[in-house]
Amino acid sequence: MGTHYKGPRDITQALDAYIKLVRASESVTSRVIRHLEDDGLTVSQFGVLEALFHLGPKSQRELAEKILKSGGNVTMVIDNLEKRGLVKRERDKEDRRLYRVTLTPAGRKLIKNIFPRHAKKIASQMNLLTKEELKELGDLCRKLGLQQAAG
Q1: Which of 52, 62, 26 is CA-nearest to residue 115?
Q2: Given this model, what pLDDT does residue 134 score?
């Protein structure tokens, strides 16, 4: 389904592509994230755990940037993860004004268990595309993302 807008061709093409991009993203995402509920995680909580697992300790600001959420939202996400004993906040040794968020052993165990299943679900949703199409899609999405970051 594309746009029903009847305007200039360049605008209708952009709207059409945008609608398809968003719908495809939301459709794939809804199928991929279903399993997170089984582990009592929201998408944002999973994003924080995954970022800490793969990138190591981060400040709340860095985590907000990484998972594309507001600082206030990330604070709430981290509060909830901390209540469950999955992360902890520690003062940064070099800049005492900052707190670093780190995985606890329980958080590391949970994300280490969940992530491989999550990655397989993503791969199964993307296997409709060839390797070349996956690369092209990745390149196009990166181009759009970088354009947004710049402007």
Answers
A1: 52
A2: 94
